[in-house]
Amino acid sequence: MTVLRPPPSSEKKGPPKFAPLMLSSPALVAEHTPCTLHHSILPPELACELFYTMLDASRAWQRNKWWLFDKVVESPHLTSFFARRTNGLDDDESWQEAAQYWYNGRATEAPSTFPEPMERACQIIERVVNEEMAKRKRFKLEWGDPDAGSPPVWRANVAASNCYEGSKESVGWHSDQLTYLGPYPTIASLSLGTRRNFSLREVVPSQEADIRRARTFNIPLPHNSLTIMHASCQETFKHSIPPQSSIDLYRPAHPRGTHPANIRIGSHYDQQGHYRVLGAATANSSVPSIAKPLPSPPSAVSSTSASVDAAIEPSNCRINITFRFYRPDFRPGTIPKCHCGIPTILRPDMKSRVNGETDRYWWTCYAGAQNDGKGCKFWKIMDMKSEGRGPCVGGLKP
């Protein structure tokens, strides 16, 4: 009797899939990603002071809105932007006034300057970032220090800050726009407050899609931890803060203090029970000094513990501060405009990299993010030399 068998399948089996991997230590993070993880990066008192400062300031922050697929979407977290008094290269404090930055297809308002606790934290973080950069491979399109003979130095002159309240506020998969950062940026991301997971997933080059798949890596980020996304991270990986089923409340190790920064950018109740954000109207004139009556500060959970514990405010918030270096060769006046008359954004060609490096970037229209979803489809390959960019590590000079 002939045994009937199904005909051989003509379908090719794809590369194997792997379950998400939890990277629970700095060693695992360094092994699997172009990032480094640093625990207890700030003195505990400063970490708590900065957390309180940013948590209070977050009451004046906004949720970004933009058009996506014919509808307006809103970011599921609060966000704000800060800039240092100088550009990090010299003592000129007029650089912000001369710069008109754009985000999500619209011009941004003048950013607030770094609060004093953020400035102190930034100085510590800059030192750690530069120490780590000295150990790593440099890429030819990275920013190169214009002073010959001196090692390139990373300087944080801007910071984007986000507030994630509860377990469901999140941000989806993305890589950071390179419009003002330029190719191969280094970004230092400080986590304060509630522990959340930070997810990374590689974008596999097209020529390797048949032989391997991307794997998701999850990194738990506790309070007072620093994640450095080193050069090549934005060109090779996308990242996200996914929603979680549950989180643990964060209980600061130190109560609110009386540091002048806390008073200047702090939050208090007046005699009528209104929640007052001190200094908010000065930093951003569109924000009123008195908000609506509220029963408690943002995400502060009432405590029934002893009076000693009452000074500590449990919180379900994560504050994230990403320190960045806006390159002077990518200042706003040098950014090409699309046919809509709006500055374009810079994106890397993530799927066409060769030998682990990306050498092609393009400028593309982003006006549709605000213009009812309508853009002009402008697209142009970036040419570092003809556009006068640099100096770069690879020797390119303007």
TrEMBL record:
PANTHER family to which the protein is assigned, alphabetical: ALPHA-KETOGLUTARATE-DEPENDENT DIOXYGENASE ALKB HOMOLOG 3
One MF term in the entry's GO annotations: dioxygenase activity
Membrane-crossing residue ranges in chain numbering: none
GO biological process: DNA alkylation repair
Pfam families named among the record's database cross-references: 2OG-FeII_Oxy_2
InterPro entries xref list: AlkB-like, AlkB-like_sf, ALKBH3, Oxoglu/Fe-dep_dioxygenase_dom
UniProt protein name: Fe2OG dioxygenase domain-containing protein
Domain Fe2OG dioxygenase, chain residue ranges per copy: 155-267
Superkingdom of the organism of origin: Eukaryota
